[in-house]
Amino acid sequence: MITIKGVRKTYKAGDTEVKALRGIDLEIHKGEFISIAGPSGSGKTTLLNLIGCIDTVDEGKITIDEEVVTELDKEAKTSYRRNKLGFIFQSYNLIPVLTAYENVALSLQLLGLKEKEIKERTMTILKEVGLEGMEDRRPAKLSGGQQQRVAVARALVKNPLIVLADEPTANLDSHTGEEILKLMKKMNEKHGTTFIFSTHDKMVMEYASRLVSIHDGEFTSDERR
Ligand SMILES: Nc1ncnc2c1ncn2[C@@H]1O[C@H](COP(=O)(O)OP(=O)(O)OP(=O)(O)O)[C@@H](O)[C@H]1O
Ligand SMILES: [Mg+2]
């Protein structure tokens, strides 16, 4: 479903160049729960940002569901992200002035759905992630784990093709992080959504159905479990 071919990305900062990705090839199938693992600076975020149409490749091609996303213009990329992709971040990235409900509903409002459908889908997903009764709380009144549950709900409520999660447990203690992983896995199994997540945490890797390791912008191993 996702084909990554010959992807290279170099960052230029003044006179210095950083080769963040040096020729990445990868095929990801629908429904995979795949972890991109590697040390700090190995290129994990760069790769997720390219798959997520947040950044542009220097060379190579990324195809998602027969659409060559690396050839889309800026506007088309924004629309692609909004319609087809869900994002989960290390620092949750919720909107502080909105309640849990409003943070999740917003992604459906951006798709122009009717209020009744938005309400039904938002309430259903908040229940699925274990936040029933907390809909009206703002992020500051939720624990880190609860905030990340809101983020999982926000990513999934639009039934995306792919959820991209960049170190989703890095700000959580190991127990709470494991709970979030279990939740993501449950959603992967229930909805068949493809998950791609980055990590350097061994516990997180344990949950992956496939583990791809990256070092200095190159893949060093690819194992199915
Ligand atoms: N905007 C940028 N400008 C310049 N260099 C960058 C930029 N973004 C990333 N880099 C460099 O590219 C390389 C890969 O960075 P990337 O953020 O993809 O690594 P990472 O594996 O996500 O690391 P971490 O685990 O610390 O999040 C690093 O050497 C980084 O310093
Ligand atoms: Mg990173």
CATH fourth-tier homologous superfamily: P-loop containing nucleotide triphosphate hydrolases
- Evaluate the radius of gyration: 17 Å
What would CATH call the architecture? 3-Layer(aba) Sandwich
The 3D shape can be described as globular
Number of domains in the coordinates?
1
What does this structure look like?
By secondary structure, this protein is of the alpha/beta class. The chain has a single domain, classed as P-loop containing nucleotide triphosphate hydrolases (Rossmann fold, 3-Layer(aba) Sandwich). It is built from 7 helices and 10 strands. It has helices spanning 44-51, 74-84, 100-109, 115-128, 144-156, 174-191, 202-206; strands at residues 2-13, 16-28, 33-37, 59-64, 67-68, 85-88, 162-166, 194-199, 210-215, 218-224. Helix 3 (100-109) crosses helix 4 (115-128) and helix 4 crosses helix 5 (144-156). The radius of gyration is 17 Å and the shape is globular. The relative contact order is 0.20. Magnesium ion (MG) is lined by residues 44-45, 166.
Please summarize what this structure is:
By secondary structure, the protein is α/β, with parallel strands linked by helices. The chain has helices spanning 44-51, 74-84, 100-109, 115-128, 144-156, 174-191, 202-206; strands at residues 2-13, 16-28, 33-37, 59-64, 67-68, 85-88, 162-166, 194-199, 210-215, 218-224.
How would the blueprint of this fold be written?
Layout: E1 2-13, E2 16-28, E3 33-37, H1 44-51, E4 59-64, E5 67-68, H2 74-84, E6 85-88, H3 100-109, H4 115-128, H5 144-156, E7 162-166, H6 174-191, E8 194-199, H7 202-206, E9 210-215, E10 218-224
Parallel strand pairs: 3-8, 3-9, 6-7, 7-8
Antiparallel strand pairs: 1-2, 1-4, 4-5, 9-10
Helix pairs in contact: 3-4, 3-5, 4-5, 5-6
